[in-house]
Amino acid sequence: MRANRTLGAALVEANLVKIDDLMAANERLLELLQSDAERQATLLGVLMYEKKVLGEDDLLQHLLEVDGIGLIDLRSYEVPEEFRKNVDLGSCWATWTVPFDKEEDFYFVASAYYLSTAVRSHWEKQLGTNILWYAATLEIISDFLEKTEAARAKAQAPMAKSA
Questions:
Q1: What are the structural domains of the chain?
Q2: What does 88-128 look like in DSSP terms, one character per residue?
Q3: What's the CA gap between 134 and 151, in Å, rounded?
Q4: pLDDT by residue, tens only, the chain of 163 residues
């Protein structure tokens, strides 16, 4: 919830959404949370796909131009196995963020929620402050996490049979 709140405030501050639209999206978000639709319970998703008051291209353009971060498509990036095996999927789903590589002392992190100070703070506590941030779409983050979950389940299946 904190990730969604700080994201909403940042979107209003950046003039990407109006306060009235944010309030309506927050109401819808609460409905989704009460219906146990956790993966659909994303403020960004409600604003972009349901309310259609925020264009994904507008958000990405803002992140590129104002925040100076790059874009990443994890579907075309070979993520090291250690990240696929060790990433905390719960934290990733909650923050719509994925650490996807490490080079020396720097972590590479993709996020659809970069504007949320709560998200950035969470990952800085987890990984340290040497983070190179990249913007990614909700679809790309979701796709990566679903594939990672499926691969983990597949790897667990042979172990369960042999036990």
A1: 2-59 (no CATH), 70-162 (3.30.300.160)
A2: -HHHHHHHTEEEEEEETTEEEEEES-TT-HHHHHHHHHHH-
A3: 24
A4: 889 999 999 999 999 999 999 999 999 998 888 887 666 689 999 999 999 999 999 999 999 999 999 999 999 888 888 777 888 999 999 999 999 999 999 999 999 999 999 999 999 999 988 999 999 999 999 999 998 888 888 877 765 555 5
Between CA 90 and CA 96 the distance in angstroms is: 10
For residue 26, give the amino acid letter: N
10 Å Cβ neighbour count for 96? 26
Contacts of 99 (CB under 8 A, 6+ apart): 83, 87, 107, 108, 109, 123, 126, 127
Contact 106, 153 (CB under 8 A): no
Rounded CA-CA distance 6/56 in Å is 18
Dihedral sign (CA 16, 19, 24, 25): positive
| Paired sense of beta strands 106-111 and 97-103, if any | antiparallel
Collapsed DSSP state (helix, strand, coil) of residue 56: helix
- Give the dihedral sign, CA 76/153/81/133: positive
